[in-house]
Design brief:
The chain is mostly beta strands. 1% of the residues lie in helices and 49% in strands. It is built from one helix and 33 strands. The longest helix has 6 residues. The model has no long low-confidence stretch (mean pLDDT 91).
C-alpha cells in the first residue's frame, strides 16, 4: 500500500448508543462505524455540547460550551483481540469497528473508556469519530500541529444523555396571583378585560440542578381527592372559599392548565406512598431585576370565585432515567387566583354624554357569617363607576386624576347561577378636560366588632379605568 495523507474512507456511523444507570456520573458509549482499517492507525471519539449554568455566586445564569475527547483507540494488530474472544472493541475485516465501554469495564480493559461528566445532569451531546492515517511519519513533522491534514472525521451523531439522579428541591419563596389585561374599542364600545386564574411562583437562584430542560412541575393526582386518601398530602388541591357560596369545582388535572405546558403521566413519586402522579411542567424564567426565577401558571377556575389553591411543586426533568424525573415536593401556601372580569362602556344613541357601563364575571351569592348564610346586598360585592378629571398641573399619571363630586354611581347587580352582571349609567360632564371612568368592585366581608358583634367591612378586588 502506498502512504496516504488521510485514511482512505471517512468513518460512517452505523449505530451509536449511550447507556447510564442511576447515580452514575458517566455514560457508557457503544458504537459501530465503517472505515478503512488498512489506512487507519487510530480513532478518537470526541464529544461537544452546551449546557446552562446558574451558580448563585455568579451575577447571572450563563451558557457553557464544552468539548472533550472521550477515548483514543489504536487499531494496530497488537491492540486488537483475536476473533472468538471477548473484546471491548474489535475491527472486523479491516472494515467494521465496534466498541462498548461497558464491556471494557466488565472485562477490566483500559479502553474504551466511558464518557466522564463528573455529575448526574442531563445533556444533549454531539459525538464524532476521527480516523488518523497510519503514515504520519511519511509526512512533514509540522503537520502534526494540523490534525485535519492527517485525519478525517465522521458525520456527527447527537444523542440525549439522561440525568441519573433526581433534581434538587425547588427553592420556593412564595406564590402570588397574576392577571392579564387587554383593552380597546370593540363593537361600538370600549371593552376592558381582566384575565384571572394566573399564579406566579417565585424561586431562588440555582436552577438546572438536573441539566438543561428542567421544568417547574405542578403535581396533580386523580380527579377526586379525599382528605383520607394517600395522595392528599402530596398533590395540588383546589376548593371553594369556605365563606362564600360559589360555583362547584373539579379537582386540578392536566386539562386545568393553560399555556401549553409539558404534561407527563404515570411519573413515579419516589419516597411517598403514592406510586404515580401526573406532572404539569412549566418553563421558569430568570428575572434580572430581582435576581430570582419565576414560573407563570395559568389555571382554568371555571365559574368559581377566588377558589383556594394549594400547589404541590417539584423540579421535573423530562430527560431522565426512570424514578429520577421528580425532585421531592414542596407545598406552597394557599393562594386565591382572581376571577375574570369584562367591563364594557358604550355611549347612548340619543345622549352621547350618557355612558352605559356593564361589568361581568364569576361571583358568589352569599357569605357565611356566625349565623346562617347571608345573601343580602349589604354583604355581596358592589361595583361603582365614577367620573374622574385629570389635573393638568400634576405630572404624576396616578395622582393627577381626581374624582368629580356627585358622579359616583352604584351599578345594579343581576346573578344567573353564580355569574354576575353589574349594569348602570353615568353622565359625563360637558365642560371639557381630560376625563375617564373609574370602575371599582368592592368585596364585602363579615368582621369582628367591639363587644363580640359582627360588622361588615370591604376591600377593593377589581379596578379599571376607561378613557372617555
Amino acid at each position: 500500500m502506498h502512504a496516504v495523507q488521510h485514511p482512505l474512507e471517512v468513518p460512517q456511523p452505523s449505530g451509536f448508543e449511550v447507556h447510564r444507570s442511576s447515580g452514575e456520573t458517566y455514560a457508557d458509549v457503544a458504537g459501530s462505524y465503517v472505515l478503512d482499517g488498512r489506512s487507519t492507525e487510530k480513532v478518537d471519539l470526541d464529544a461537544s455540547w452546551t449546557e446552562p449554568v446558574d451558580d448563585p455566586r455568579e451575577d447571572a445564569p450563563r451558557e457553557l460550551s464544552a468539548r472533550t475527547s472521550v477515548f483514543s483507540l489504536p487499531l494496530d494488530a497488537s491492540a486488537l483481540v483475536p476473533e472468538g474472544l471477548p473484546a471491548a472493541y474489535r475491527l472486523r475485516d479491516d472494515r467494521e469497528l465496534t466498541f462498548d465501554s461497558r464491556v471494557a469495564r466488565e472485562l477490566k480493559r483500559a479502553l474504551p473508556t466511558p464518557h466522564q461528566f463528573g455529575d448526574t445532569k442531563y445533556r444533549r451531546v454531539t459525538y464524532t469519530l476521527t480516523a488518523t492515517t497510519r503514515f504520519r511519519e511519511d509526512f512533514p513533522v509540522t503537520w502534526i500541529d494540523s490534525p485535519d491534514r492527517l485525519a478525517v472525521t465522521s458525520d456527527a451523531v447527537t444523542v440525549d444523555v439522561p440525568s441519573s439522579a433526581a433534581p434538587q428541591l425547588p427553592d420556593l419563596q412564595y406564590v402570588v396571583p397574576t392577571m392579564g389585561w387587554s383593552a380597546g374599542q370593540q363593537d361600538g364600545g370600549y371593552v376592558s378585560k381582566r384575565r384571572g386564574g394566573g399564579l406566579r411562583v417565585w424561586m431562588g437562584r440555582g436552577w438546572w440542578s438536573s441539566g438543561a430542560g428542567e421544568l417547574l412541575g405542578v403535581v396533580v393526582g386523580s380527579d377526586v381527592i379525599a382528605p383520607s386518601g394517600t395522595d392528599y398530602p402530596f398533590v395540588s388541591l383546589i376548593g371553594q372559599d369556605p365563606i362564600r357560596s360559589s360555583a362547584s369545582l373539579r379537582n386540578l388535572r392536566a386539562a386545568s392548565f393553560g399555556g401549553h405546558p409539558t404534561v407527563a403521566i404515570n411519573v413515579p413519586l419516589v419516597g411517598t406512598p403514592v406510586p404515580y402522579v401526573t406532572v404539569v411542567g412549566h418553563t421558569p424564567r430568570y428575572d434580572e431585576t430581582t435576581g430570582r426565577w419565576f414560573a407563570d401558571i395559568d389555571l382554568d377556575t371555571q365559574e368559581a370565585y377566588a377558589p383556594f389553591v394549594r400547589l404541590s411543586l417539584a423540579r421535573y426533568q423530562p430527560n431522565s432515567l426512570e424514578k429520577c424525573a421528580l425532585s421531592p415536593i414542596v407545598l406552597a401556601d394557599i393562594v386565591q387566583p382572581l376571577p375574570d372580569r369584562t367591563a364594557t362602556v358604550t355611549a347612548g344613541p340619543d345622549d352621547p354624554s350618557v355612558r352605559t357601563v356593564t361589568v361581568a364575571g364569576p361571583s358568589y351569592v352569599s357569605v357565611r357569617g356566625r349565623g346562617a348564610d347571608a345573601g343580602t346586598d349589604s354583604v355581596l360585592p358592589a361595583v361603582t363607576v365614577s367620573v374622574q378629571r385629570a389635573d393638568p398641573a400634576v405630572a404624576d399619571d396616578v395622582l393627577r386624576w381626581q374624582t368629580l363630586p356627585e358622579t359616583t354611581v352604584t351599578l345594579a347587580r343581576r346573578v344567573i347561577g353564580t355569574a354576575a352582571t353589574w349594569t348602570g349609567q353615568v353622565t359625563v360632564p360637558a365642560d371639557g378636560g381630560e376625563l375617564r371612568l373609574l370602575i371599582v368592585e368592592e368585596e364585602r366581608l363579615f368582621a369582628d366588632a367591639p363587644g363580640g358583634t359582627e360588622t361588615v367591612t370591604s376591600r377593593i378586588v377589581y379596578a379599571t379605568a376607561v378613557p372617555v
